[in-house]
Amino acid sequence: MLDLPELKVVKPSDTRWLSHERCVKAVKASYSAIVTALNNIYEQTHAPEALGISKALCRPSTLVAIYLLDYVLPQVAKLSRALQTERIDLTAITPLVDATLNTLDDAMLPAANWVLELMDAKNEIEEVTDITLTTESIATFQGQVAEPFIRMLKANISSRFISQDIVSSFGIFDPKKVPAADSSDFHTYGEDLIDVLLAHYGAELPAKTAGGDEYTKEALISRETREEWKTFRSYLSKKPKGNLHLQLKELTTSDMLSEIFPNISTLANICLSIPVSTASVERSFSKMKLIKTRIRNRIGQSQLSYLMKIAMETPRRSHLHN
């Protein structure tokens, strides 16, 4: 009747916050239909719930918040999905975070995309509600609600990536980013980032001798690490250009490379153990729930472990045909 797409309103979940994005998008797309349906329900049944939800949706602050969230949540969701990929490029974290923060800044502009979109929908909204939207009322909402919300959101994101410069420094191991051996940048490439990694991971650690005496030793020997990097840089420049993940795995699994570059190999092990997100852990629990159902609750630990490995490590069908 209202010529709107048929959408299902997703129930937001506290543990799956990406569902909030889909919920807001569905409410915004079918806003007029939802308000009309709630009013019809109240007229026919006098259900107080329908009247309460309708009044809440018809508040100007609620409507403007829906359009603001429809702009903000997808930006944050893109960053979240990028961090949940199986093999994330660590060097891309800093640009991704910076781009997200810059996009959130745009939401506070007087002519932000979500504001223009709201003003375009003004006539349709006023047909089904008593809301009267003005430039002044939207500007007031931006100053009192949107700007504090965006600032808090940006502060929260920034606090979660306080070590992003350290993590991004591991990008020097990416063979595709090593300059050509005959270029002027080659002989200094990566030396500043090696110093960043040494400053963070080269602290002294407690250790014991074979006789049980305690002493401290460097996790990474600074002078040897710098010398190893000069040789390893030449090694990288002459290799076929693979990706960062494969190069790190080679450093940790090759006995020859571990013997020649012990400190660089330690850095590679550190990089591969960095928990960028908990997505892989959450996926494993989801797989376990699909495997060990109520009907199959007598599966032993050993068999469950084998089935989990098959479910988690087997290549996708599309990859098998390539």
Topology:
Layout: H1 18-29, H2 31-45, H3 48-57, H4 60-83, H5 93-106, H6 113-120, H7 122-128, H8 135-160, H9 164-168, H10 191-201, E1 204-208, E2 214-218, H11 222-237, H12 244-253, H13 255-260, H14 262-272, H15 279-291, H16 301-313, H17 317-320
Helix pairs in contact: 1-4, 2-3, 4-5, 4-6, 5-8, 10-11, 12-14, 15-16
SSE pattern: HHHHHHHHHHEEHHHHHHH
Q: How would a textbook summarize the main sheet?
A: 2 strands, antiparallel
Radius of gyration: 27 Å
Which regions are unreliable across 5 or more consecutive residues at pLDDT < 50?
none
Q: Can you characterise this structure?
A:
This protein has helices spanning 18-29, 31-45, 48-57, 60-83, 93-106, 113-120, 122-128, 135-160, 164-168, 191-201, 222-237, 244-253, 255-260, 262-272, 279-291, 301-313, 317-320, and strands at 204-208, 214-218. It is mainly α and 322 residues long. It has three domains: 18-162, no CATH class; 167-272, no CATH class; 279-320, no CATH class. A two-stranded antiparallel ribbon has the order 1-2. Strand 1 (204-208) and strand 2 (214-218) form a beta hairpin. Helix 4 (60-83) packs across helix 6 and helix 5 (93-106) runs antiparallel to helix 8. The protein is elongated, with a radius of gyration of 27 Å. The model has no long low-confidence stretch (mean pLDDT 83).
